[in-house]
Amino acid sequence: MHSGFLNINKPRGFTSHDVVNKVRRIFGTKSVGHMGTLDPQASGVLPLALGKATRLIAFVEGSTKEYVGELVLGLATDTLDLQGEVLVTSDASHITIDAICAALPYFVGRQSQVPPMYSAIKIGGKKLYEYARAGVPVDVEPRQVVISALELDSVFLEGTRQVATLRISCGKGTYIRSLCRDIGVWLGVPACMGELTRTASGPFHIEHSVTLEKLSENPAQHVIGIAEMLKGNACVALDQRQAARFLQGQRIIIAEELVGECSVFCGTMFLGIGDIAQQVLSPKKVVAQEGDIL
Q1: Strand partners, 279
Q2: H or E stretch covering 20
Q3: Same domain as 186, residue 115
C-alpha cells in the first residue's frame, strides 16, 4: 500500500470529500485524508495523506494558507459568495482603488472573525450549514484568526459592482468569504466573494500540484514520500534494538545533542516522529510496526 502525500489541484464544484473519494478509488485504499477543507466553489491546493502518512497530518500540514480571490463590492448573499441567494445589492461604482487600498491594512494581523453560516463548523453536534438550510437561527461566536498579508492585485468595474482581486496569506481557520463581507462593511457597501483559488497550503504549492486526471494516469509517480516531506526535520538514526524499543513507546538515551522534534529512522525505514530533551528521545508519533524492521 502506498504511504505518502499528494498535492492535488482541486477543481471547482468538488467538495474536499469528493476528492478524497476519487483518490481512494484511484489507489484502492480507504486510508486517505485531506489537510484543510477547501470550499466546493474554490479551486487549488488540497493536500492529501495516504496510508501511514495519515498519522502525520498534524506534523506536515502547516498553518499558513495563501489565496488569490475576488472581492465583489455591491452584492451580498446568504452564503457570502456568488452561489448564494442575493440579499441586497448596491451601487459600488463610486468605491475607488485608493479606498480599497486604504481599507486593507485594517484587516492584517490577529483579529476576530465571524465564520459564514454556510460552513462546516459544528455547534451542538450539527454543522452550521445544516442550521442555515433549515432556517434555524444560531449564535455564531467570533473566532481569532491571523491574516499576515493582504494585497490588491487588480480592480475592474462590472456594471455597478467593483471586482477586486486580492492576494491573501493567512492562518488556519480564516474564511475568505467572511473577510470579503467585512471589507464591504468597512467600505460601506454590501460585499461577497467571487472566484477563489488556494495557491499554497503549508509546504504544498500550486505550481507543483497535480490534477485528478493526471493522477489517475500514473498514481505512484505523484506520491511524495514521507521522508521527503519531513526533510526539514532533524534526523535520528537508531539500530534495530533501539528501533524496537521506540516502536514500543519506550524512551531511548541517544548520543546526538539535539533538542525538539525530529524524524526517526532505522536504516532507510521511517519509524515516526520523536522529541528530544537532554539526550533522551521520546516517541511522539509512531508510524512503522515492529515487523517493518525485521
Answers
A1: none
A2: helix 16-27
A3: yes
Q: Enumerate the active-site residues.
A: 39
243 touches 41 (CB < 8 A): no
Pairwise CA distance, residues 106 & 127, whole Å: 30
Q: Return the percentage of the chain with pLDDT > 90, whole number.
A: 71
DSSP helix/strand/coil, 2: coil
Instruction: Indicate the DSSP class of residue 147.
Output: E
Q: Is 46 exposed, middle or buried (0-12, 13-18, 19+ CB in 10 A)?
A: buried
Q: Are 276 and 254 in contact (CB under 8 A)?
A: yes
Helix (H) or strand (E) holding 150: strand 143-158
Whether 87 and 26 map to the same domain: the answer is: no
Q: Residue 13 belongs to a domain with what CATH number?
A: 3.30.2350.10
pLDDT, tens digit, 9 for 90 and up, residues 133-155? 888 888 888 999 999 999 999 99
Q: Around 111, how many Cα atoms within 13 Å sit in the side-chain half-sphere?
A: 16
State the pairing for strand pair 260-266/204-205.
unpaired
Residue appearing with cell numbers 476528492: 19
Of 289, 254, 284, 257, the C-alpha closest to 270 is 289
